[in-house]
Design a protein that fits this description.
Strand order of the largest sheet: 1-2
Structural class: mainly alpha
Oligomer: single chain
Order of helices and strands: HHHEEHHH
Length: about 170
């Protein structure tokens, strides 16, 4: 069971980093299009900025899940570095539990926003066919993925040394 869960999380991790990487690539491709349109053609386009914003939201929440699994997130360890190994392990579980609570809160709040905007039927002004609720989907989705990685960390320990996570690592 452990191996199946870890292999599944490896696949989820790869999907997360590809989604985050693709959103950054799209974002860095379309921003110069807007700059060129404004500076050289004196005509600002309406779609690059909201598209870049949506890409940044995807990058933030889906990428954060991957960063959590890889141990690449920001962690302040001033206090825990001074504790005994036994106390460090207890603090790690406490941090994971608190992170799980944050993830559950964002899942709840994100779903609340999605359901609210589904009832309003609002669309994005620059994309009349795109409903506003789609822009909120990365919040609960990314938080759910983070929650899966938190559960993995609590059950099986940190996974930052797994081969799939070590791809591109210089350490």
């Amino acid at each position: 069971m452990k191996d199946l869960y870890l292999e599944t999380m490896d696949k989820v991790y790869l999907i997360c980093i590809w989604a985050a990487g693709l959103s950054v690539c799209i974002m860095t491709t379309i921003i110069p299009i807007q700059v060129v349109a404004r500076k050289w053609f004196d005509s600002g386009l309406s779609w690059p900025e909201p598209t870049a914003l949506i890409c940044m939201i995807v990058f933030t929440f889906i990428g954060a899940a991957a960063a959590y699994r890889a141990g690449s997130h920001i962690a302040v360890t001033v206090l825990t570095d001074r504790l005994s190994l036994k106390s460090q392990k207890k603090f790690k579980y406490l941090v994971d539990a608190l992170m799980a609570l944050v993830a559950i809160f964002v899942i709840y709040y994100g779903m609340d926003r999605i359901l609210f905007f589904m009832t309003t039927g609002q669309t994005l002004p620059d994309f009349p066919t795109l409903k506003v609720f789609w822009t909120y989907v990365p919040l609960p989705l990314g938080s759910f993925l983070t929650l899966l990685f938190i559960i993995e960390s609590m059950l099986f320990g940190p996974q930052k040394n797994r081969p799939v996570v070590m791809i591109g690592s210089h350490s």
